[in-house]
Amino acid sequence: MNDQLIVYANNVYLEYIVFLAPFSTSQLCIVNITDLGTNNIQCDFVYSVVTSKNQTTLPYFVYNCIDIQNRMMIGRIEFINNGTLCAYKHRNSLVGSNYSIQDNFVIGIDAQNEGVYAFTDDFIAYYDFQSWNMTVWPKTLPISPRAIDFTNDYGVLAGYCQDTPSQAFECAMIVFGSGSSSSPSHGSRFSIGSSLNFSWADLRSTHFVATARVYSITNLMSVSISTIANRVLIGIRALNVALLYVVDDPTTPNTIYPVSTRQTGMNRMGFGRSIVWLDNQGKKVAILANQYTYTTNEWISSAFHIYDIESDGFSDQTQPILIYPNSQQIVGPLINPSFIRLVSSRTSGHLGIFDTSGDASIILSAPPGFYPATDRPSYFSTSVPCIRGANRSYASIELCIPCENGTMSSLDGTSCEACSDPDMFCPYGAVAALPSIALESVEQEQDYPESPETTIFDDLLMQNMFSFNTKSLHCVLVSPITWVLLVIGFGSLVLIAMAISTIICPGKHPVRDKAKAIFKKMDLIGEGELWIGGLVSAAVVVLVICAYSFSNAYFHQYPIESVVGESLFACDTSIRNAKFTTSMQMKKARQAKEIQPIFDLLEAQSFTLTIDLINTAFTCSDTLLVQRIISYAFINLPISSCTMHYNNSIVSLSILLPSHNMNMQVTLPGLRTVGAIRVGLTGPAATYEDRRYTLLALNVSSIFIPTSFNNVLAPSTEYTLQLSAIVNQTDPLNVNDLSKYSATWFATYDVRTDELFTQQNRYSFFQRSQTNLTITIEEDVYYVKNVQQPIARQTEVIFHNLLFTIVVLELFGLLFLVCKLLIVPLVRRIHERVHRYHAKNQVNTKENDDTNTESTVIPLQ
User: How far apart are CA 417 and CA 388, in angstroms?
Assistant: First the structure.
């Protein structure tokens, strides 16, 4: 294979299948293997076909075969430009008649395109493209050939060397060609298997080759040389290993140095059966990674790996940057899944795969922003745009690489652009930068209130009537003490006015006397004895009115769900006429007659499962599969709706569930990544018996986000939604009324969040074939019962207010009586003593004044 043609031989149908550039089915040419050529020699079985690496002339290929007379021959078929698509010249020549059929017969075109070398166990041949002469030399190389590759100045021949008459080993050597002038020379051979160490438990440690010349399919080898870097890769199928060498100076013997090796596991064979460089610089290589059982050579699987040796090195720890087939590049319908050989065009990067039937699948290098898809019924791949969230800036047969976290790719797959805001959700493989509002969960308020500290109405009434809280203006204004103090203050002013009036006008005064008469009639405490009792009674009336007003407002603070706004009539604006009890009870097949309808509504509620795939390249047009799992059987469920949001970066799925208890699996095909996931349930509301029984609407969801934005949703995740019924019973204010019931479902998520997401990189993302979401929904056998009861019913409020009125009147009456019997007499007694003491002092003062007057008189003479 090169940039001008792709060719392979089909010995079953005796034909060469040739595709000419530009590669397409329309450029197909069929050449009969039995074509006689210039020397009238007819092939019967073709060993191999080879093409030139640096072909600049008309496209051609070279083959080696056995003719119908069991003679070995080499030929060249060249396609000519005479206006006919498949016109060609066919030249061939017998190798010679002195040698028997060779089982090990490999050919390679020299770097100058001047001829082709043939290496066998008995001879070496050179077929000159200028003179068309065949030159044959007896074999002088101490090696039984299995693979050959040439570069500009040298070639590397790999095979088996006979160490002793009873044992051979894997070896290789550098060979130097000189055309037809002389047999190729060679450097020292070197062992390519002796440096490998296998544990005693590994069957490869018992690998043994007795005779180098004996052909066996298990002992196939491959060689590939990078022209510029002089890197040599040798694959040994039997040892399941590939070895990397570097040739510093090919003109000097023993200058090929082992660098590293890579193997894919013990007790297997097949890795390294075919190796090709994808470029001349020795940066990337494709290795056939077949798996066969070691003891029976039974085929298990086929794939090829691409390694970036320039960037990642080459060792057992090196991860491939691509494994074919994968979910985006499947094995095409025209070949079988058992591969035997790889070929490549190093200039363009195309790769050919051949199966055991001799059929080919050609993976053409895709331009930047595209990747080659192989699922079409064609021999050639098709360039497909990179999926959103991925990019590739160079031409290659590789898949597009997801964008690193902090970058995104929505349309143009040639590059990833940085997300504008670092606070945006921009994980690995992002297709958009999402704000935090797109990452919210939906929670329903399920917390039932707790009962207040005081659930006795007497205590509540006393606390609110006789408390004076100055923490806010509102508390001061609604406190009854405030208004009582105002009335008392007004009464004090009246009392002072009366006292002043009595002093100024000690006799009768019509206004003062009228006011006293009114206050005496208002006297509820002294029963009209004293006018001052009327002033105190006014304060009592204000306090009682406040109690009635508070009780009426408090009575209507029930049930809590019908209360709108705050309780502005009290300092504590959250005060409610309700107390609560909560209990956990087991479900029964049949509940009590009064409560059974609410359970019927719960069981009849239809559920819709909602799944939001966040920051993903999946779309609604993808084949998203939802299946219910019943006893290991999978039953398809329809997707009720599929919508896309936030620039098509969020895919929202809705699935109507046939049951409340079920297991299901959602399958997302391909290797598209999912940055985060939101899982939720919705269900409609319902009522029964004129809203006596109310089923609340269900709308809950929980979002799961990776702790590191280098992580994406794992290929297989599990979610369990545990549904617990919450039944609310609201007792009536009137004992003759009926209780009301409401209910809802409370969903709890049992998810191992540390297993939901996995780190993804260029070495692992392509290994994902699909993403599976396993979701289990089940009801709890217990339910929560909340009971709401009023603290004070109407009769209780009326009774306690009457009792409060009586208590207040009696309390103030007692205070008035204490004042009348104790305080007033005591004040009068003190007043009399003070008055008597004051009068006595006045008399003494007058006597002293009279005495002083007499002593100061001077008689006249």
Answer: 12
